[in-house]
Amino acid sequence: MKVIYDTKSQIVGDTGENNFVKACLKRGWVKPSPSDEKQNRYEHWDFKLSNGSKVDVKGCKRLNRHDEESRSDIIYIEFVGIVGYKGWVYGESDIIAFETESEFILISTKRLQKISRKLISREFTRTPKLYKSYSRSSRPLERVGLLHIDDILKEDNYVLTK
């Protein structure tokens, strides 16, 4: 029987979100309010901060689903989701928080859109490659791209230590 859901990816996402809440509390911030399922899935945000900003948290990803280890030096950008709807980079979040081993790099969603459109080619590949668009053969509607974390660190960002 073919596995249709990757529980490792879900665990990575859930862990990243839990780590984000802990980092906020450690910093002395008010506990972020979680989104509901509809907001998470269709509006693409996970938490609302006390100042009203909506944050979409991205845990460390594996380069390929069969890889055992996550990498914090690469970040996936979802332009179009697996069923053809807008990807999370065009969601309703104000901020994207990328998890690394020791911190979260927070960047404006609008700024990330500009960087992504500038650096990621529309040229498609069937394997993940830096600065190329990618879609899995089993998910022909999806369009994602791959950036290096340094591309985000060069920009105006905020670091939230874990």
What does this structure look like?
With 162 residues, the chain is of the alpha+beta class. The chain has one domain (7-161). 27% of the residues lie in helices and 25% in strands. The chain is built from four helices and ten strands, in the order αβαβββββαβββαβ. The protein has helices at 7-26, 37-43, 109-119, 149-153; strands at 33-34, 47-48, 54-58, 74-80, 95-99, 103-108, 124-125, 133-134, 143-148, 158-161. The radius of gyration is 15 Å and the shape is globular. The model has no long low-confidence stretch (mean pLDDT 89).
What keyword list fits this structure?
10 strands, 162 residues, single chain, 4 helices, 4-stranded mixed beta sheet
Coarse structural class: alpha+beta
Distance between the termini: 39 Å
Number of alpha- plus pi-helical segments: 4
Helix content: 25-40%
Query: Which regions contain 5 or more consecutive residues with pLDDT less than 50?
Result: none
Strand arrangement in the largest pleated sheet? 1-2-3-5-6-10
Q: What is the domain total for the residues?
A: 1
